[in-house]
Write a structure and sequence with these properties.
The chain is of the alpha+beta class. The chain has three helices and seven strands; from the N terminus they run H-H-E-E-E-E-E-H-E-E. It has a single domain, classed as RlpA-like domain (Barwin-like endoglucanases). The radius of gyration is 18 Å and the shape is globular. The protein starts with a helix and ends with a strand.
């Protein structure tokens, strides 16, 4: 009986920790290499955030092509493609978010405008990592 109880506690602990990882994060955890792809929903944040400091320390400017991502390294450049209309835009990750479950990226107003996503607010997208601060352009 003692042997059975010795493995139950670690098993329960592992199961509990595993439940904290959301599926969108699990698919991309640790894979920041150029070419890595993530599919999910994008939203955008706009002019009301202008002047606020981002996670990178920059001041947010809704007219710049930037984005917030929960785990990609700050400074990562990604190509975001709107799966509804095929339009794409390159953005640089300079903030953390989105904080709403099921969304994988928050775009600046300028990024959302280029994707044709302003009216919809939330659109299905595909992200492709172009470069990270560690790899530079083109790997």
């Amino acid at each position: 009986m003692r042997l059975a109880s010795s493995w139950i506690v670690p098993l329960v602990l592992i199961a509990t920790i595993g439940a904290w990882v959301t599926p969108a994060r699990a698919r991309t955890a640790g894979d920041f290499s150029p070419g890595a792809v993530q599919v999910g929903k994008a939203s955008w944040y706009g002019k009301s955030h202008d002047g606020h400091r981002t996670a990178s320390g920059e001041i947010y400017d809704s007219n710049r092509l930037t984005a917030a991502h929960p785990i990609l390294p700050l400074g990562t450049r990604v190509l975001v493609t709107n799966l509804n209309n095929g339009r794409s835009v390159q953005v640089r990750v300079n903030d953390r978010g989105p904080t709403i479950r099921g969304r994988i990226i928050d775009l600046s107003y300028a990024g959302a405008r280029r994707l044709g996503a302003l009216a919809d607010g939330i659109v299905p997208v595909k992200l492709r990592v172009l470069s990270t601060p560690r790899t530079g352009v083109g790997g």
